## 1
Amino acid sequence: MAWDDRLRKAQYESPTGTVLTFDYEDVGYEFTKNGAVYDFPDEAGSFVQDLGRSDRRIPLRIIVWGENYDFAAEDWMDALGEPGMGRLSHPMYGVIDVVPFGPISRRDNLKTEANQATIEVTFFETIGAIFPALQLDPALGVVTAVDEYNKAASDRLKQNTNLETTPEQSQLKGPFQLLLDSVDAELGAIADSDAAVKSQFEAVRDSINASIDTLIGDPLTLAFQSSILIQAPSRALTSIAARLDAYGNLLQSVTAQSFTTGLGSAESNKFHSANLFAMTYVTGSVLSSLNNQFQTKTDAISAADVILSQMDNLVVWRDDQFEALGEIDTGEAYQQLLEAVGLAAGFLVEISFTLKQERVFTLTVARNFLELCAELYGGVDDDALNFFIDSNALSGSEIIEIPIGRDIVYYV
């Protein structure tokens, strides 16, 4: 395969989800190698401290043309002027999170190159606002973002699937039922730990299963009910680790699948259904973090890391599948999901500063765990004892006596 066979379709997705394609000329990028130079008296030479590198700066000359090129050029200028992070699908360098930075110019050569405009812009690769500023009620902000995601994701399944005929509906029914069955198998046990959650989970599950023959032809309703089913166990009164693991396992099961073009609407329908479930699994983790009373800073930061990692894995998988199928994501549901993940991560980082900080020391003599717990926490009760045992994973023999050399974790 030659280099020109590896070129991608050139497009830019603005922060609000506007997708624009473009032609281009020669391309390139640059980055800055950071460092600090230290010179010392009476010493020849310098010491250079390597401080890594900046992200890429990608200058582009975007070309739009045709009888309506003026409208297209204005759309570009509007999109490049939007605040926030966009996504550049570069013909050579892949899909990159970017922010347009510096001067952005448009030139219309009406005399020499009629029906054409060139736009000069430099995109800066960015990690974005991973932890955006929280609202007055950060929990409400997360819930609102998830609600908006549910609406957008349901609409996207309706718009992106072709289920007009009975054969098309029949081809999707089996794969969609498998997705529902995996949700029941993985999240059913989580839901069982809470009576109210179990009741809602079973009611939605039974409703979908009883009406699947009809719902498969109504993707808007099917998607919305599936999202509610997936998200219900996030409120269960079980450990945050168990909930995050369950949603992570489901996400992994979907992202292990791949889809290819050339198989008609059936393959596309299967992908968009799998994509709905994969994205909604991440919202399940987001809501799980919201519906949890964290005790330690470590636990809160760990939950944020898990959610961000799930999002990263989802993005890579989605990009690969859209490219393989030759389709473009208009981004409405993705943008709402990104907002929910960012707000949840920010919420977890924010509350971590108010939680207990982990400390570790090594026993120099064997200790009775009751005495040690009382010494560390200023007394003993059932909650303190259970917390001490769980945080140190004490075995049965260690509850009698903790041996010398054992690392002990406690929180202040």
## 2
Amino acid sequence: MNLKNSYIIMIMLLLIFGIMVPAGAQPLDVDQIFDRVEENQVKFDNSKTHGEMILIDEDGDKEIREIIMFEKDEEDDEITMLMRFLSPSSVEGVTLLSIKNGEKMYLYMPAYQKPRRIAGTSKQENFMGTDFSYEDLSLDYQSAEYQKKLLEEQDEQYMIEVIPDEDEVSYKKFIVYVNKKDFYVEEVEFYNLNEEKTKTLQIKEIKKDEEGKITPIVLEINNLKENHQTRMNIQEIEYDLDLSSSFFSIRTLRKPRL
């Protein structure tokens, strides 16, 4: 067989191989990546989470806060959330209610005996000294309304640029890193309106259920300007509890026990 014939056969084999490559092996686009992420998330009507927040300052000093959090899955992938600090005494009883991805937010502090509405630029303030702003607690990086662009496919991650509606949030963009093996958001970089990276959110540890659905159990948000970080450890989580229809309400904020 001469060299010319060998070359022709090689081209034919490559073409045949290309035709036979299964669809799943083709590169994923950004929508397909986020679809896979959504598929791997636990589906629930409501949930109850018990855990702790650890605030770490630039000197390494720590403050540990015990928390309890309830979430309800609304329509259109919106989450309503109620979170309360259980300890230490300096924050005990402080409760936040975020309705439908932060559409309305209320903060209850026992000393004042009256919920306060968090609105407008107040949502950019840090939540009770943590590195989460009120806004951060209700962000949905996968929102179908945000512009998304696949920047790079790395060995272990997809690097995706997410540009939100500037009328809704105070960030210019997010860079989202999706784990290629298990398809979950592994890290998020936050960029302000001047396109400066101000924060990072990292998922340090995950847990898989029997169906392979993923729950983040250790999260860490770093404030790069303040050299301060908040770590969140999920210790226990329950799904689909028998909660009353009025549980996620302003009235619940005043209850001494949840």
## 3
Amino acid sequence: MSVSKMTTATVLQAKGKKKLTMLTAYDYPMAKIFDQSKIDILLVGDSMGNVFYGFNSTVPVTLDQIIDHCQAVANGAKSYSLLVGDMPFGSFGVSTKQTVENAARILKKGNVHAVKLEGGTARVKEIKACIDIGIPVMGHLGLTPQSINKFGGFKVQGRTAEMAEFLLSEALALEKAGCFAIVLEAIPWQIAKVITEKLKVPTIGIGAGVHCDGQVLVWQDAFGLFDDFTPKFVKKFLDLSEVIKKGVADYKNEVENKTFPDTTSHSYSIPDEELKNFLENMEKKESKKLKDFV
């Protein structure tokens, strides 16, 4: 399956044909790299609360912060990736009107293509209202980080038959409401497999096993730039922290030992004749000042 630009339609068409790749992105340079690498979906996630701002959870992230980061990502990812902006805690769930207004702000000001919204049947009315005015919505079930205060921490969801049935019913409700894809986070792989097979829309797994239609990771987790905590589902594909530490050490060493910058490769020069004139003029002025002083 080859496309020039990912859309919600091509995400839907990918089910059963290709595995979707999704990464978080929060800034221009990384978004540009991911877009050029043809990552299918970039999520401007409220995970920025942890990995970008150093909060203990995603709850403090504001709508304005999401929008600012969406703008940066949109500037970097212009050729391939579908861009999704997270709806942060408090931006939905209060009233349908407020949810639609906030989702519209993310699309209009953030310049992304869709929003992601946590929750199941309780959010169906809001999801439908967004979709009715042309705002595509990605769902999110299982461990929903904005609800950690309710869950009592980051805990795997769906480990009982009753909870597994509940997750399936929630997923079907989101599909019926019109979500073009659903993130399944931290649920047993067997349950994610059943849900994926039952749904006509793609599932994007994060700690939900290989049978989902795609996978998502927080990029700082995947590439070694966040180690405050590491969930079981994270695989470190590269340890950028060690690469950066070496670069910082080399920089510090060269500055302290006066090998950087050198006078040719990393410095600008003035033509010899101009330098000569400058030094002569400076010397004349200093000599005049000395005579005036005497």
